[in-house]
Amino acid sequence: MLVHQIIRDIACEFPRAVREERLVGAIHTWLNCGAVGLLKQAGESLTPVAVSGLVPDTLGRRFEIVKHPRLAAILAQRTPVHFEPGNPLPDPYDGLLASHLGEPLPVHDCLGISLYLGDTCWGVLTLDSVDEIPFPRSVIDRMPEIAACCEAVIRLCRLEDENRALHLASRIDDELTGDGHLDENREIIGRSPVLLRLLHELDIVADSDLPVLLSGETGVGKELLARRIHRKSSRAHAPMIHVNCAALPESLIESELFGHVKGAFSGAVADRSGRFEAADGGVLFLDEVGELPLIAQAKLLRALQNGEIQRLGSDKPLKVNVRIIAATNRDLAEQVRGGEFRADLYHRLSVYPVPVPPLRQRGDDVLLLAGYFLELNRTRLGFRSLRLSHQAEQALCAYSWPGNIRELEHVISRAALRAVSQGAIRTNIVTLEPRHLDLDIVSAQEQSGISPDADETPAIQENIHAMKEAVEQFQRQLIRRTLANSNDNWAEVARKLELDASNLHKLAKRLGLK
Ligand SMILES: Nc1ncnc2c1ncn2[C@@H]1O[C@H](COP(=O)(O)OP(=O)(O)OP(=O)(O)O)[C@@H](O)[C@H]1O
Questions:
Q1: For a FRET experiment, which of 264, 336, 425, 442 has its CA 20 to 30 Å from that of 396?
Q2: What is the per-residue DSSP string for 357-375?
Q3: Ligand 1 centroid to 495 CA: how many Å?
């Protein structure tokens, strides 16, 4: 019985994401329908927090309410809304049903109800069927009861979150429970354990006033993470000023950072404050800090050491109070060894170093992010539905993403345009295939340095790295495939791969699959 199962779950200890998944899974099993979705309202959009029966990228999509008339209709009333077969309004899940991966079948029958916490709307529950037989009257009649169960679970999650936040505030270091993805101000998509661990760590460091050094490959989201640190810090009320150290011409760096007084150089026609002053009380984000020339490094160091700056051409010191967050895609420690970066500045910036993992180590986040970008493009280009074929999903998961999330964003936008130019009709369900994605898998391998006849020492180092990555990529695919063929049963995967269960657990964690 549905209600019994939900009450049993309420009595157990679960992280929020698991609670929500179990709730949706229980409703799905009980109804035996096509799909169930629990969507939370965040501003003008609905964000799926748990789905069952839909393709994995659904979790990354953000459904703009004005663009989805069915969702708007569900939100507009507190009683159940039934869209019978043949209803002309497009369904947000058209083409996203997992049971019809080969064929982009539209949803036929849809039921929805808005969910409330007290008088405040929280979001919606949606039930979809792919059969042309409408939901029976008995299900429609039980919708308020099902909604009440959902509301109870949501309320419990909220109370548990508040409790956890209180613990965190009193510096009782709570264990990671995997709910970082549901932050109100979320812009950061992903649920992989590596990302959730990182967000948890950043939330703790945000609270301190320590300088943070974010390092990682291009496009991994360093700037996005810097913004999150700022937003969650006690300096959130003051600005975060962004300085792209790679884009500043050497001759202007000093004046940009510290400002100048009238007449300091030809062209200085008036007094002007610099970025340090603009960031006073807030955060100065030094992006691509590894590109700063040595001379500018010395000046920056002096400002950080003394907590004061001088405008160019002035001898009056000005006190500034800024927190520094720096980012780099270079290996700064290596640059220090090579004499390109000052060791003293490096130590000042890297009080709290945060390596940001590349996309290929974030497991299924690639599909969630793909879903997020698919939905953005669907809206932008006016498609009824924009989805990935199973082969396209596999291609995205197998690719090594040297340009990380930025590259994924571009790949999806390009693929959508390519589909249009190849004749896709916007009023149909448009399915992106590997040929639309056009991922350059061969050249990515070449880029990563695999070359059988390279025998010079640096090349050997690179090859070892590339080989490790290729092996990990293979392991990731193998585990994912075996998992899919074993109904997500890890014990069965361990048996099939002839691995000890605890070794499989460790390996899956290292590969970002758990
Ligand atoms: N987890 C995420 N969810 C949604 N969008 C993301 C995520 N991570 C990155 N992005 C998007 O990917 C793009 C690249 O991110 P960002 O500029 O923060 O990367 P970066 O590491 O600072 O790159 P670079 O080193 O090249 O400056 C941005 O458009 C950003 O919004």
A1: 425
A2: PPGGGSTTHHHHHHHHHHH
A3: 38
